[in-house]
Amino acid sequence: MFRWYQNADLCYAYLNDCRCLLDSTTAAAENQSKPAQKHPYSAASDTFDIVSNLIANKAMAYGEAIATNPIDRPQIRAKAVTGRTVFVKDRITQTSGPTPMVALKVLNRMIREDHVKNKYHSQKFHERKGLKKKRLRSQRWRARFKHGFKATVSRVIELKKQGW
Cα(98)–Cα(76) distance, rounded to whole angstroms? Predict the structure, then answer.
């Protein structure tokens, strides 16, 4: 059975050889004459490596911090393709509720606003192109008529309050 401490001396010698090889390669690269640079900063300069390492470390730390807690992630408005998420939090927002019952009501409101039920039934069966155009034109007209009718009714109520 192999034990890690049996060959510790051999591993240590191998690591020393690798370190010496790396040091000699680095020294040879430093001794080579560097071409004169036109610009003070370039991607090949040592300062670029330092800056890129700093940026990479910051980005990695930020990614690890966000990935740990899903509640701390920025909330996005989920489209139908990515799903719908409602959080149970201490107050009501567009995507959260203080209790599970309120959160379900928020979810129902989101589904109603996205017309999920209508989309489900419309996708159940195939609809010819001409019929689809006809149906959509009718739906748009109904929506325009509803908007205009509500505006007219509100104007009539407003005028009635004024005594007309």
Answer: 19
Query: Rounded CA gap, 76 and 114, in Å?
Result: 15
Q: Mean pLDDT score of the chain, rounded to an integer? A: 75
Q: Domain boundaries in the chain? A: 75-125, 127-162
Q: How confident is the model at residue 4 (pLDDT cuts 50, 70, 90)?
A: very low
pTM: 0.39
Distance CA 12, CA 3 (A): 15
| pLDDT at residue 20 is higher than 70 | no
CB count in 10 Å sphere of residue 22 = 10
Section 16-36 average pLDDT: 53
Torsion from C-alpha of 20, 24, 25, 31, nearest 10 degrees: 160
DSSP 89-156: -SS-BTTEESSHHHHHHHHHHHHHHTTHHHHHHHTTS---HHHHHHHHHHHHHHHHHHHHHHHHHHHH
